[in-house]
Amino acid sequence: MISAELLTTLRTLSRGEKLHILQVLVSELAQEEAQLLRPGGIYPIWSPYDAYEAADTLLTMLNAPKPETHAQR
Amino acid sequence: MLNAERYSFTSANPAFGEAGLQAYLPIVLTHQDRLATIPGLLDTGAMVNVLPYQVGIELGAIWEHQTTTLRLTGNLAQFEARGLLVSAAVGQFAPVRLAFAWTRATNVPVLLSHVNFFMEFDVCFYRSQLAFEVRPRETSSSARSGK
């Protein structure tokens, strides 16, 4: 969280100092973004995102009458 | 309307810091007399709930007895999958029936998805707060009783 104290301090800086801080922060943010996905890395995506047929089959299973779970003895 | 239960995002991969945080929901699955408590990944991009092979075995399900075959997509397309109905409990809410695509794959998390987890539970994500809330869907009876 950005504190009011920090903002007050930043506002007292010269134009050059503000630009320098801006460059540092932009550079660090860019590095963090680049680290999210590593070049050559393998990231499996398990989501069956367009499995409409499977979804329809499962709904049919859910809506089918429940089988008797206890056979009469 | 039932009060929502709030959960925190959890780290699936500490190496990635905040990027490795995902919405895993603790869920208790019951099949016949066996139960398994396991984190399920809330996956809005998936069409069906997915159950990894070993969790189905833990629940006492027998592969050969599940006769409904399913065809999955993406990385799971290479594995056989069969339909499996289980009872599922989230937090203090009443158990519901969930239909899973029980896959032969083992290195996949439990996926909770549109059919039919999101048909049973309403979920609200607050990613900026690293939290999400879950509540059972509103039925006509719960709406009438105000619960």
Keywords for this structure?
heterodimer, A: mainly alpha, elongated, B: mainly beta, 3-stranded antiparallel sheet, about 10% helix, globular
The average pLDDT value of chain A, as a whole number, equals: 80
Runs of chain B with pLDDT <50, length 5+? none
Distance between the termini of chain A: 67 Å
Number of helices of chain B: 3
**Molecular shape of chain A:** elongated
Q: Assembly type of the shown chains?
A: heterodimer
Walk me through the structure.
The complex is a heterodimer of chains A (73) and B (147). Chain A contains three helices and no strands. In chain A, 11% of the residues are buried. Chain A is mostly helical and 73 residues long. Chain A has helices spanning 4-11, 15-36, 52-63. Chain A is elongated. The termini of chain A are far apart. By secondary structure, chain B is mostly beta strands. Helices cover 11% and strands 42% of the residues of chain B. Chain B contains three helices and twelve strands, in the order ββββββαββββαββα. Chain B has helices spanning 53-58, 117-120, 140-145, and strands spanning 5-8, 10-11, 21-22, 24-31, 34-42, 49-51, 69-70, 81-89, 96-103, 110-112, 121-126, 131-136. In chain B, the strands form three sheets. In chain B, strands 4, 5, 6, 7, 8, 9 and 10 form a seven-stranded mixed sheet that branches. The termini of chain B are close together. The mean pLDDT of chain B is 92. Chains A and B meet through helix 3 of A and strand 8 and strand 9 of B.
Summarize the structure.
The complex is a heterodimer of chains A (73) and B (147). Helices cover 58% and strands 0% of the residues of chain A. Chain A has 73 residues and is an all-alpha fold.
